[in-house]
Amino acid sequence: MQSASVRLSPTSRRMVILGLAATAASVAGSSSARPASRHRHAAPKVHGKHAAARRPHIEAEPETIPALEPRSAELEPIVSTAPALPRSALDPQRQIRTALLDDALVALKRHGDRIANKDHIFLVDFQQHSSKPRLFKLDLRTGQVQSFRTAHGRGSDPSRTGFAKRFSNTPNSDASSVGAYVTAGQSVGARDGANVLLDGLDATNNQARARAVIVHGADYCEPGYLAREGMLGRSNGCFALSHADLKTLRPIMDSGRLIFAGN
Q1: Domains, the chain
Q2: How big is the CA angle at 170 (ends 164 and 152), to the nearest 5 degrees?
Q3: pTM summary value
Q4: Residue 253 to residue 261: CA distance in whole angstroms
Q5: Under a CB-based contact definition with an 8 Å cutoff, are residues 175 and 205 in contact?
Q6: Residue 131 · residue 149 · CB < 8 Å
Q7: In the beta sheet, which residues pair with residue 196?
Q8: Is 200 exposed, middle or buried (0-12, 13-18, 19+ CB in 10 A)?
Q9: What ranges make up the beta strands (E) of 142-244?
Q10: Dist CA 101 CA 85 (whole Å)
């Protein structure tokens, strides 16, 4: 079966073409007038003095927050109110008399609220002769010990034997005192020069500040004096050191550290 065909006259064909062209133009016009995005809203108008300050919106990349740096392994460990090492790891070379070290650790715990810095403690063994290194610096983080010489008071050794025989907390006794001290900062005095101030924490030494008991350097603690006399000289109750040893220990003792003197 053949399909029927419609034959248009030239005039009719021209009218159809013009109609189609008009329809296409109308659709294109309505599309160009439509907003670019039906989801984008017009920005609110800004009036007055804030209008000039308005900046065009810029799409920025999300802010990158830097990661925290890991704690360096070289940083010193934080020391708690107890020694950072077990008792067995302290003083591995056994330079400190056992009973003295045990008493010092008990004092460190008892006076923990007054001892702000627990990285080092200092121990003085008054059982030893003054010619011997009897002042010990103990690093509680490593357990290592360094030893130094220190003098005792003339009131503790009136016969000048080199041994401290008696101890006193009484002003003007010129004797050494035993017990726990806390360092109270570096200072400079008119008579003894650079020093470290002390506060006594026990009933046996709580007059230390009133008695001006300090750590200081003295000529009678120098190696030459020891070589000549066979012992150190005597203080007025202070912990006197050689000038070189004071220079080494003063910034470490500084403030808030324990000095424990025992006999």
Answers
A1: 87-156+173-262 (2.40.440.10)
A2: 25
A3: 0.69
A4: 15
A5: no
A6: yes
A7: 186, 215
A8: buried
A9: 145-148, 179-189, 193-200, 214-217, 239-241
A10: 14
Buried residues in 30-46 as b, exposed as e (16+ CB within 10 A): eeeeeeeeeeeeeeeee
Q: Which amino acid is at 212?
A: A
The answer to whether the CB of 240 falls within 8 A of the CB of 216 is yes
* Chain position carrying tokens 């927050």: 65
Per-position pLDDT tens, the chain of length 263? 444 444 555 555 555 455 555 554 454 444 444 444 444 444 445 444 444 444 444 343 443 333 333 333 333 433 434 446 899 999 999 999 999 999 999 999 999 999 999 999 999 999 999 999 999 999 999 999 999 999 999 999 999 999 999 999 999 999 999 999 999 999 999 999 999 999 999 999 999 999 999 999 999 999 999 999 999 999 999 999 999 999 999 999 999 999 999 99
Burial class (CB in 10 A: 0-12, 13-18, 19+), 54: exposed
